[in-house]
Amino acid sequence: MTVTFKALSALLSYPGAELQGAVGEILDAIRAENLVAAESRAALERFAREIEAADLYDLQERYVDLFDKTRRLSLHLFEHVHGESRDRGQAMVDLARLYEAGGLELDASELPDYLPLFLEYLSTRPLAEARGVLADALHIVTALEERLAARGSSYAAVFAAIRSAAGGRAAVPVPEGSTEPAENDLAALDAAWEETAVTFGPGDSFDGCSVDRLKIRMRAGRRDVRRAEA
After folding, report:
1. How many domains does the chain have?
2. Can you say how many angstroms the Cα of residue 37 is from the centroid of all Cα atoms in its chain?
3. Distant-in-sequence, close-in-space partners of 199: CB < 8 Å, separation ≥ 6
4. Which pLDDT score is estimated for 113?
5. What is the pTM of this model?
């Protein structure tokens, strides 16, 4: 079991009083496993202490504003790979079966491509396997990190830590002068995003459920996820 991925899953989940009360334990677990590089860990610790000290209602409102009101920051992985195409449904089924094969049971209300749930699954796997699966979703993680950093959101620290734990570099530089559009421009930006969301994936020629099939589906959207930044 890789505790770091479960800890990062908790930090990316909808915040509640339980999360605020567990910050110290979460940070202790991340330090003990030492999978996150020092630079990324320092930023993550600042973020976690911010979570711990914040007003809970403000924290929850910020979370919803970031992750639920614009598709560009969606925490659902296949939103960025398959958009609204029919391939997304089959990819969901494949991922749910992968979880079940690994012993992770889903609630009926849970979508399997929710990033905190994906990280929770990775936490149950041997480190080498978890890193291998995560490597093929890192283009999504990186794009989200860059978008959050451009907004000045401290949540970017969690994505930097995910990449670091996966063996990636400690930080993504934000180009000088890079800024996120004003809030009143988000509707137009999301409309442009939808135009780039095309069908990805290998179709029906790959039967069964496996890590390899999941990797193919993740890789298929790599270029288009980065294009969606514009």
Report:
1. 1
2. 18
3. 82, 83, 85, 86, 87
4. 87
5. 0.74
